[in-house]
Amino acid sequence: MLVAQVLVAVFAANRRDAVRVFDASPADAPYVHAMLRELAQFEGLLGEPRVTVDQLARDLRAGHCWCILAEAEPGASPCGYALGYHSYCTWEGRGLYLEDLYVRPDMRSRGIGRSLISAVAERALETGCARLQWQSLEWNERACRFYTEIVGADEFRTDGARWLNLILRPPAMRSLVAGGRVGASDSGCEARGRECGGPKRAGSQPEGRANA
């Protein structure tokens, strides 16, 4: 039994090592667009996304947003993405807001979500951001479990909707990039403090959602 457990652990580690993350180019817009529609369908909001493939390609080219893609095997189609943009807080300066993080259902539990969020934290550090912020709807239990396993989190209500709000500071980002677990005391969560650097949530808007 112990040998079997070790073999499973080694196999899982090898699969995580095989994950490749890379910056999306405008030519990758069709892949990103397809996955963002999958995410909207999961939320029962398939009719809500209005961004087109061409618009997404233009925005990536212009730097209005950035996107990181993941592939599990060389030459395979992307199986996950993280998309966001830089924000600004007059108290802290530059920040990074993660709008979407998504991994296709048949590719989950392979370390892909962890690879994507680590790449996002690395981007925040490389661009001199004072904070990395994102949110997840409370009813998305799988995503909330994923985040609370690796980072500290707090919950708050906004106009009747409950969100899991996550804010990481540079020390926590470095820990995440290094492969460690970020504790709640290290993350600098400010769910009820000054919420600069990201959109203020209202109602049940699906923005900032994540499913990894």
TrEMBL record:
- Pfam annotation, one family: Acetyltransf_1
* Keywords assigned by UniProt, alphabetized: Acyltransferase, Transferase
Q: Which stretches does UniProt call biased (Basic and acidic residues)?
A: 189-198
Q: Which PROSITE patterns match?
A: GNAT
Q: Tell me the domain of life.
A: Eukaryota
Q: Which GO terms describe its molecular function?
A: N-acetyltransferase activity
What the entry lists under SUPFAM superfamilies is as follows: Acyl-CoA N-acyltransferases (Nat)
Give the N-acetyltransferase domain ranges: 19-173
Q: Does the keyword Aminoacyl-tRNA synthetase apply?
A: no
**Which residue intervals make up region (Disordered)?**
182-212
The UniProt entry, under InterPro entries, shows: Acyl_CoA_acyltransferase (IPR016181), Diverse_Substrate_AcTransf (IPR051016), GNAT_dom (IPR000182)
Which protein family is named in the record?
Answer: Belongs to the acetyltransferase family.
- Protein name as annotated: N-acetyltransferase domain-containing protein
Species of origin: Diacronema lutheri (Unicellular marine alga)
